[in-house]
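Feature request, filed as a ticket because there's no other form

It would be nice if the structure record came with a short human-readable summary line next to the tokens. Right now we just get the raw output. Example of a typical job, pasted below so the devs can see what we mean:
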Amino acid sequence: MLTANYTIHALFVHLNQPTVITGVRRQTIPFRNLSLTPIKIDYLPRAVRVSTLISHFEKQEIMKKWKATSWAKKLERQHIRRNLTDFDRFKLMIARKKKRDVINREVAKLKKAANISKSKEKKAAAK
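Raw output as currently delivered:
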């Protein structure tokens, strides 16, 4: 999610974006390291100042659009999981065990009900 102001040459692009909002500084990046997304700033003039870029960025809610993508959600999940403490991982393990136990009990009830109905059908067919 970067705003390309101009191409330096065929292999690199100069990227400028609102560092205040995105936290990524102005830089030059090779095209091979970029991934295009459908998110773009419409009606952005060439060689704009940072203040104009920020106003267009906020007006068109680019960060909101980015955070709604599955890519951003995946990155957020990775960030959260990476920063879990040992105790958080322990609590997560306990929660998974409880969830698994509830599911297994319900599945066992359903299997038992299915077996009872099958045995009743067999007894009725035998008579």
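Something like this underneath would help us a lot:
Residues 106 and 112 are 10 Å apart (CA to CA).
The mean pLDDT is 85.
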